[in-house]
Amino acid sequence: MTQPERHDAVAEWADDLAGPADAMSPPTVDAEPEPARADADAVGAPTPDETPTTLLPASADAAGDEGPPVPHDAPVTAVLPAPDAGAPFWRNAVTRSLAVVGTVRDRMPHPARDSTPTEVIDTRRDLAALEARDISAWFGDHLVLDRVSLTMPAGAVTALIGPSGCGKSTFLRILNRMHELVPSASLAGEVLLDGEDIYRADRPLTDARKSIGMVFQKPNPFPAMSIYDNVVAGLRLTGASVARDRKDELVETSLRRAGLWNEVKDRLRAPGGGLSGGQQQRLCIARSLAVMPRVLLMDEPCSALDPTSTRVIEETMLELVSDVTIVIVTHNMQQAQRVSTQCAFFLASQGKPGAIVEYGDTDAMFSEPIDARTFDYVNGRFG
After folding, report:
1. Is 219 within 8 Å of 284 (Cβ atoms)?
2. What integer pLDDT is reported at residue 90 of this predicted model?
3. Which of 68, 262, 313, 358: CA 20 to 30 A from 23?
4. What is the DSSP letter of 225?
5. Degrees (nearest 5) of the Cα angle 110, 113, 119?
6. Are 326 and 338 in contact (CB under 8 A)?
């Protein structure tokens, strides 16, 4: 194509976009008002002697706050500048093209007026009850738990108390299928989450881990990972997926629920291993909450923390219990009284496997226990 032919093609393309020359000049206002037309309310409706340059359908949201709403199928008409006789032809072509583009841009829905609601991550789920039925556990030939049955009510904190070696932590690990990871371990019985056995053969292991989270005695964040990546790591480990544009919201929501957001919001890309012990433990709680579990298991989460950090963790638990059922193992009797509504006392007699001696309301167990062994333990006479 020669240079003159290219110039002619550009001019022809601009003319196609602009429409007839009559549509290029801004409309004039006559001294006498025009007779009302049936389509007078339509934005950009043409007069009988006009042919509009139709670009694309108008959006009702594009009308802005003034005037009547724009019909969905109303055409958008570009008002193009008159050509400058003294300017090169290509400048007129570009000017008219930019006017078309600007009209399209101006008629696009504005984000602030977009009626589509922003999707918010909803952390509220139906509260789940957890029930263990006739749980027995072995390490090799050694029986460590013998026919333990326990109901952990939905929306409550259940504390497991008892001296070391009575099987509390083993029982807790059975509740989310961690016991089976030990090569010599075996078990019998059922663990029911809302009536469904999590050990059912056709139920994937990751399904149980998503529904039942775990926080360990010693904080275990990934030290080289950032705080942000530590939170979302739980998604990868459980096979869950979240859209990239929702990850920021999920990280903030999880850290807020764990009571850590205000302390780390300005350093989310700093290593998780650089936090204090109490902050690391809350980061681990946030990581567990990111997959939105229905039950949260906590194995002595405050045993390595100072009193101030312990208080913060306990406050976090009391805030979470409205959304998540919590089961905690603790050797701190005062902590069990402060945070739990239900309590189970485990005991292993010498040479015998662990079993539940007494279970019930926490206040009743500490004030008026039924079994004398419970009274002795909660009052510090042994253990």
Report:
1. yes
2. 55
3. 68
4. S
5. 105
6. no
Task: Report strand pairing: 157-161 vs 212-215.
Answer: unpaired
Residue 301 CA to residue 318 CA, distance in Å, equals: 14
- Comparing 201-210, 263-272, 350-359, the range with the smallest average pLDDT is 201-210
Q: Which of 179, 109, 124, 198 is nearest to 155 (CA)?
A: 124
Residue count of the chain: 383
Higher pLDDT, 84 or 126: 126
Query: Which one, of 305, 311, 360, 293, lies nearest residue 158 by Cα?
Result: 360
H-state helical runs in the chain: 3-18, 89-107, 168-174, 205-211, 227-238, 244-257, 261-264, 277-289, 307-320, 333-339, 362-367, 372-378
CA distance 353 to 167: 8
Q: Is 203 exposed, middle or buried (0-12, 13-18, 19+ CB in 10 A)?
A: middle
Gap between the Cα atoms of 295 and 178, Å rounded: 15
Residue with tokens 């700093």: 270
Predicted confidence (pLDDT) per residue in 23-60, tens digit: 444 444 444 444 444 443 444 444 444 444 444 444 44
pLDDT score at 127: 86
Beta bridge partners of 54: 77
Strand 295-299 to 325-329 pairing: parallel
The pTM of the full predicted model, rounded to 2 decimals, is 0.66
Q: How far apart are CA 193 and CA 175, in angstroms?
A: 9
Does residue 316 contact residue 286 with C-beta atoms inside 8 Å? Answer: no
Q: Is the pLDDT of residue 369 over 80?
A: yes
Q: For residue 364, what are the contacts with CB-CB under 8 A and spacing of at least 6?
A: none
Tell me the pLDDT tens digit for each residue of 165-217.
999 999 999 999 999 889 999 999 999 999 999 999 888 888 888 899 999 99
Q: Quick check: helix, strand or coil at residue 4?
A: helix
Q: At what angle do helices 227-238 and 244-257 cross, to 10 degrees?
A: 110
Side-chain half-sphere CA neighbours of 200 within 13 A? 10
Distance, in Å, from the CA atom of 249 to the CA atom of 198, rounded to the nearest integer, reads 30
DSSP 113: G
* Rounded Cα–Cα distance for residues 164 and 159 (Å): 15
What is the spatial distance between Cα 188 and Cα 180, in angstroms, rounded to a whole number?
Answer: 11
Name residues whose C-beta falls within 8 Å of residue 380's C-beta, 6 or more positions apart in sequence.
333
